[in-house]
## 1
Amino acid sequence: MVKARKYVVVKRFDGPPKRDDFEIVEEELSNTLQNGEILVKTEWISVDPYLRAYSIRYSVPYDQFSFQVGIVEESKNPKFPVGTRVVSHNGWRDYTIMDPNKGETLSDRVYKLPPLNGLSDSLGVGAVGMPGATAYFGFLEICQPKAGETVVVTGAAGAVGSIVGQIAKIKGCRVIGFAGSDDKVKWLENDLGFDKAFNYKTVDVTAALKQAAPKGVDCYFDNVGGEISSLILNQMNEFGRVAVCGSISSYNENPTKLPKATILQPTLVFKQLKVEGFLIWRWMNRWSEAFAELVGWIASGKLKTPEHVTEGFENLFDAFSGMLSGDNFGKAVVKV
Ligand code: NDP
């Protein structure tokens, strides 16, 4: 009998999550697979900001979420033989029985790890997984960047932001990033090829943008929301495009009690800005397009895919909490 370990939320909480809000429990899995089912051993688990946001907004416990890469250990599904590597959305657990034919919603789907040409399988929850697709479609479809334009990215040193900035460079744009430490700023400029980066905790954002983007901002990829985004929107050019990807600056706040924000409608009207929020599920049927192009860029050296790896299932909470407070350079993942 296989025993799975999984995290469950034992206390509802306000503010930043704490270790004793979670417990690791054991679950006995059935000895016999039904036709169509596979037994998957988890190898990599993603920790993502949306777990925090969803748990507050929809009162959903964390153990129902998180992408993972795993290997099929037993199979009664000829399309997923033993040894197949799969990406699924099963939460913080180390073994799972699933039926790839039975995903009820887009996020329930199990799919084969895309061909990675020898790259680490962990990319299946990162640059060649949901965060990579988010950067690719959110930026290219909503911002519609043109060569020579100026792009600003917040959360620039994270999983999604670091890819958005590099795609913008591939498309011939000038890229300015905001991140939360001086080391991240240096890393973005020296290692990832951003034209300019700033520590949003220490700079005057408006002054920084006036200096780094004297002709204004054409595209803004917003990972963080809050006041910094209002300041950036005020520096945009006419017909600028804004992809609203996330708002991590408020994920620990109760969504019914958010602080009042700067009034932005006059800016939106007079600059004729297009501001569009999105969820990556919108393009799920096209993810393979993004994956093929992203793998090509990685192989040709145009796209770097840094990861912040935490070892051990028992350290998942620390990885999650550390990611929320900015420990990660690139994608935060856990090696199980
Ligand atoms: P990251 O890898 O960027 O990790 C989160 C980062 O957020 C931290 O490293 C930290 O970096 C930064 N951060 C934490 N608190 C704050 C704050 N108060 N203000 C500004 N930055 C903060 O995560 P992802 O790349 O996975 O996600 C980035 C954003 O994209 C999130 O908002 C997420 O919810 C969103 N997202 C949206 C999707 C969609 O479908 N719309 C899909 C995937 C992600 P720092 O040191 O710079 O502060």
## 2
Amino acid sequence: AKLSLIGVAIDLGAGTPGVSLGPSAIRYAGAIDKLTGLGYEVKDEGNIMANKPISPKTDGIKLNNLDEVVRVNTELCSKVAEVMQEGRFPLVMGGDHSIAIGTIAGVLQHKKNLGVIWFDAHGDINTEETSPSGNIHGMPVAVSMGYGHERLTGIGGKDNKLQTDKFVFIGSRDLDAGERKVLKDLGVTVFTMHEIDRLGMTEVIERAIKIAGDGTDGIHVSFDMDSMDPIYAPGTGTRVPGGLTYRESHLALEMIALSEKLVSAEFVEVNPIIDNNNQTAKAAVALMGSLLGEWLI
Ligand code: ARG
Ligand code: MN
Ligand code: MN
Ligand code: MN
């Protein structure tokens, strides 16, 4: 199979700098060898680069670095759509989680009825109104469902949006008050750490694959490294204790691979500046292996 590796060197959606170096860290951790070793014909598309914002705040708008986040995600959306047009699997590496806006908008150009499994300690479903920080990496889920600033929701087309009942969260443990309400109102499925503890990852991921995979055009996996416990992924800007173990996260991705419903994926929030010997990028590469079929023999 053909696969395109797309780096997005941006940290303007996050509160902590450095995650723009994530794509390089993931390449140094051996992503291309890993994927080539799995039999993929890998094309490294290089990085989409964010510039330093000229004015981080647009007048009267609470969103940080809006102009540049919109520009980068618009470019990413086109790139992902183009790669899929060529029959290649898009594997996006971040970068902060705001890049899910562009990735998902691009995938939606080809897969209108897309299911999503979103691994994250956070909800990332804030809008300008509910956000405690103004950081756009806390908003991509809202935007991809059609909620938020029109310059963000306009990327890839206003009508190209996700269905809330085909979206699943896994690993949640730090949801803002406004996010809890929105999640309830929209009826989105959330498997918090509590459900993972009680049901076990096998049951949780089987249910998630059903919700995101049955009757859809396929599943997109958005993997925020902070879904893992900080013991395994210390190099990420918004660490929350009590996360997924190394084996739980691999098991989940292996079972998604087995479902044969995966159409696109992204690994985000790898920040080498605050990491421990590139441990988090190495974890991301190992997870890519599991998601892309390393254990299917
Ligand atoms: N909920 C917080 C916020 O809106 C943190 C978001 C963290 N998001 C992430 N992709 N790491 O600012
Ligand atoms: Mn997160
Ligand atoms: Mn929080
Ligand atoms: Mn996130």
## 3
Amino acid sequence: LQKKLTGTDIPSAQYGGRHGVTMLPGGGIGPELMTYVREIFRYCGAPIDFEVIDIDPSTEGNDDLEYAITSIKRNGVALKGNIETKSQSLTEVSRNVAIRNELDLYVNVVHCKSYPGIPARHQNIDIVLIRQNTDGEYAMLEHESVKGVVESMKVVTVENAERVARYAFEYARQNNRKKVTTIHKANIMKLSDGLFLEVANRVHKDYPELEHNNMIIDNTCMQAVSNPHQFDVMNMTNLYGTIVSNVICGLIGGAGLISGRNYGDHYAIFEPGTRNTGTAIAGKNIANPVAMISASIDMLNHLGHKEHAKVIQDATYQTIVEDAIRTPDLGGNHSSTDVVENILKILSAKRVNW
Ligand code: ATP
């Protein structure tokens, strides 16, 4: 195994330089988005063999979940749509959270970078959101202690706070970023968020060339909307991370545009950044395919298939920025398949150069 600087193991290629990747289409628009990715990969000969696993949240038991986890452990990498959590029952856990916890995918990275010309509240945003992905408010430790009283545990550990802070500072250093902002509510949650902040301050001492500041989550949401350009890299607990990711993705184009990456020491999962199911728009040929295509590009880069990643990335960029083939969420009037066909057309024109 080759080691990446971020610390995640990169699986070795199999015979012929190919990689096996687990594909979890999930619910809502997931399956149609995966069809587009497979079409694009087939078209440009990306050396990936997908192992497709459908997880049905309405089935009893966890057999499908265990099968998915075994497959990801074998392949090391997955491309994933969002799996719906239908029931409010305390015994049914979110399969999305269960997968991340079981594989110890402790960090989530969402790079929110504006596309020029896409209608948005702010232009030229370039923020990297780094989120603790396995504990905090998502510890799934909730119970009704007596009728009418529910308790929910928020867990912060030195180990996980340090892993995510170190990831954030290391990312900033390696990518020539200048500042890390730690997001918290330590004025109220003095012990839990206090520990998260204390650990970030300690880790910062190893990165003296970087600026480190901290900001309270409520002010962060206001600042993100009014003056997002002040942010560079953000270091956040789990729940604050999902809120801020959705705010900033919303500012630059919504749920269909930006991808997200989940890393642990051994495995990586790539998915759309805001993790929406998109049930209401499924089957209508209007879902924006770009976030899932970008997730597939991240996955190709992770596995070292840089050339395939680059041609797909360039074709996607050209489609939405230069050719302005955009789905309704981006103010366009094109269908999902119009976007994908335009990408295939560009790939086809480039084919001679491969
Ligand atoms: P659910 O019932 O699972 O919550 P939903 O469609 O009602 O599904 P979300 O999945 O939470 O809602 O999505 C939030 C919003 O983002 C919805 O308006 C959805 O249509 C939109 N959205 C999500 N993904 C995309 C996409 N790829 N392209 C366009 N819009 C999207």
## 4
Amino acid sequence: KRFPEIIINFKIYTEGFGKAGHSIAKAAEMVMNETGVIIGIAPGYMDLHPMSVHYSLPVYAQHIDPVKPGAGTGHILADAVVSAGACGTLINHSEKRLTLADVSLAVEIAKSVHLETIVCTNDVFTSAAAAAFSPEFIAIEPPELIGSGVSVSTADPGIINNSVSAVKNISGDTKVLAGAGIHSGNCVKTAMELGADGVLLASGVVKAKDPYAVLTDLAGGVI
Ligand code: G3P
């Protein structure tokens, strides 16, 4: 099975839902078809189902709650995300943090419904802790660089290679994504040279004037 090398988190940016969100997904699909680089998207919940139907892209939820079906209200169920067409989910994004116990339960529940797990971490220690749950991916994102336009690849290369070694020592099959401030093919190339298997990014694509051009450049950096 091939996993995405580039995942775009649409967050709750105005440019990321409805018509605007669809044009980003369309651009991602074109670039994936043209380059062969697998591009995943993480749109808002409302767009999971339409986007998973309209585009041949792997679609991820931005979060799930660590709950099982039953008497609960207002939670995001792993099972519902699967039935909406998602193949995986982010867990513990810096903007939607969970306790360690809840990360553990969310990963366990996701696995039980065959949802790929991308556990986000903020430093090398949390990357090591998350590796103990053997998720499909760990996405290391230094919070201070998120949305800054300053790339983790150049501003904090050590956090990438140290997370890669920490993770691979504990869970050899877990892939590591690097994120925060990624905006160009060069950022992607450097992250991969540092041992990352791919990148997770948001503003560089979602807020771009021409997402297709940025995605083409990003895909060119995949090594
Ligand atoms: O989930 C990706 C994200 O937190 C990184 O954001 O805008 O720095 O690419 P950005």
